[in-house]
User: Which sequence fits this backbone?
């Protein structure tokens, strides 16, 4: 082959080499990145994706790091969760349906972390639990099987955890409802005139105390005078008709039987008229004295002129008011004049209330119970009332519970009777009532901050009774609890803690966080 033929072939080869080299240089960065990522993935796999500490990178890692339990944050040889044989757990008792807690210390006091004989609550906690609807614990929750451990007692203090002793104290569980104090309707009288007339005298005014039967005012009513006159006529007429009948009977056969019948009918008619007039006067509130048929009209008139009015009142009347038309307005019971709309000389209508008398010694407390609280209210319960401004307080006993809930307000109305000696409480005072469901003098109490909760259970952390023994694990036990009512800064524990046990208070949320963290870590490990 001559030289001219070799030149094109050589040029083609040089061109291919140049193209391949350029393409290779472009691939080198991508290849380097893939190799680097592969190295990171491999390194992460063999190290468990843990970032090495500075001491590990420098080769100065502590020898003790390999003996530390990362899940429970204590030295691994001392970790009772990883090595349960170091502090064996009690045989499980399961979930207590009576109290609604797992591993119920109320039914199994041997679980109590107290030195000496455990002390049980001094009241029926089962009844207290079932008294009203309370927050429940899940029977499937297993956090109570865990224990929170610290390396040392000093570590507890450094974590900001404080403790307190579960004690005993008084509690009162109540239902709160809005309401008001009102006069007992049966102790309020709205008095008006029983006959139309004019006001002749006003003897009692607003705020005056009155006695039963005392005259409050006098009304000049012509109807009264007319009825008194009719009464006198009826009495006289009976006397005349009886005398006439007596004469007819004495005449013997000289008088026909028809005349005798007519004479007897006249007597009966006069007696009916007398009875009718007496009834009309009684309807006006008069009590009539006994009359003699032989009494003269002048005598009868004198006895009827001031009928129903005491002599002491008559003496106070001006001469112009002394007539036979006077109709007294009488106090029906002991009390006080609460309102008065009566003025001397004005018209007294039978439809208009003139004087209101009330007995303030007895009030009603009317409360409106929320629908959800209605099942827990019944007759006989004690109620304590406080006015909105806190200045007035009262106590009473529920005497009536409405048979149905109000359709508009969806509340149940109840009534309690309240004694009001001295009349210090006022009508129409608004406030709130506390219906007592139960009272305990020695309830089990812990600070409210000792109670922690998850989505389905409530817990407290109870310190091991041997916490301060040398070489003994520093343990807090997780206890499910059933909560009662609050008392100041404390809360009642119906089940789950016994008096004398030591519970974590301030910082107990740290224990819960540590517990949940450890539980989550255990779950992850279990999956792998």
Assistant:
């Amino acid at each position: 082959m001559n030289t001219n033929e070799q030149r094109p072939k050589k040029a083609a080869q040089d061109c291919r080499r140049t193209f391949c080299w350029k393409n290779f240089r472009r691939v080198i960065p991508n290849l380097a990145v893939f190799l680097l990522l592969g190295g990171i993935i491999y390194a992460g796999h063999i190290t468990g994706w843990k970032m090495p500490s500075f001491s590990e990178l420098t080769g100065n890692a502590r020898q003790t790091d390999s003996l530390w339990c990362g899940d429970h944050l204590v030295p691994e040889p001392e970790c009772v969760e990883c090595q349960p044989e170091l502090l064996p757990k009690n045989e499980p008792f399961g979930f207590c349906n009576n109290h609604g807690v797992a591993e119920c210390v109320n039914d199994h006091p041997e679980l109590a972390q107290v030195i000496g004989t455990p002390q049980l609550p001094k009241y029926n906690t089962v009844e207290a639990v079932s008294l009203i609807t309370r927050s429940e614990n899940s029977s499937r929750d297993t956090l109570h099987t865990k224990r929170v451990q610290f390396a040392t007692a000093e570590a507890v203090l450094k974590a900001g955890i404080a403790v307190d002793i579960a004690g005993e104290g008084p509690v009162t569980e109540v239902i709160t409802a809005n309401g008001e104090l009102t006069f007992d309707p049966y102790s309020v009288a709205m008095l008006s005139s029983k006959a139309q007339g004019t006001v002749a005298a006003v003897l009692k005014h607003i705020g005056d105390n009155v006695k039963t039967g005392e005259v409050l005012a006098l009304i000049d009513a012509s109807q009264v005078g007319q009825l008194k006159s009719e009464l006198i006529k009826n009495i006289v007429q009976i006397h005349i008709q009886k005398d006439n009948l007596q004469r007819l009977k004495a005449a013997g056969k000289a008088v026909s039987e028809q005349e005798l019948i007519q004479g007897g009918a006249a007597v009966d008619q006069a007696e009916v008229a007398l009875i009718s007039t007496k009834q009309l006067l009684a309807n006006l509130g008069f009590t009539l004295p006994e009359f003699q048929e032989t009494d003269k009209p002048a005598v009868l008139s004198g006895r009827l002129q001031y009928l129903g009015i005491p002599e002491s009142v008559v003496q106070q009347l001006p001469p112009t008011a002394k007539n036979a038309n006077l109709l007294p307005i009488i106090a029906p019971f002991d009390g006080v004049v609460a309102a008065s709309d009566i003025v001397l000389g004005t018209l007294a209508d039978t439809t208009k209330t003139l004087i209101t008398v009330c007995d303030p010694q007895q009030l009603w407390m009317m409360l409106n119970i929320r629908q959800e609280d209605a099942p827990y209210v019944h007759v006989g319960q004690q109620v304590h009332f406080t006015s909105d401004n806190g200045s007035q307080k009262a106590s009473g006993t529920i005497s009536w519970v409405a048979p149905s809930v109000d359709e508009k307000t969806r509340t149940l109305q109840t009534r309690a009777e309240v004694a009001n000696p001295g009349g210090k409480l006022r009508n129409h005072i608004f406030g709130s009532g506390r219906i007592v469901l139960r009272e305990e003098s020695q309830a089990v109490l812990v600070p409210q901050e000792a109670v922690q909760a998850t989505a389905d259970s409530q817990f407290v952390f109870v310190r091991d009774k041997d916490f301060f023994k040398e070489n003994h694990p520093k343990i807090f036990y997780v206890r499910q609890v059933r909560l009662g009512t609050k008392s100041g800064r404390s809360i009642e524990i119906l089940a789950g803690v016994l008096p004398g046990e030591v519970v974590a208070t301030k910082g107990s949320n740290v224990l819960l966080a540590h517990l949940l963290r450890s539980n989550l870590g255990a779950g992850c490990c279990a999956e792998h």
About this structure: The longest helix spans residues 3-47. The first strand starts at residue 68 and ends at 69. Confidence is low (pLDDT under 50) at residues 52-65, 523-528.
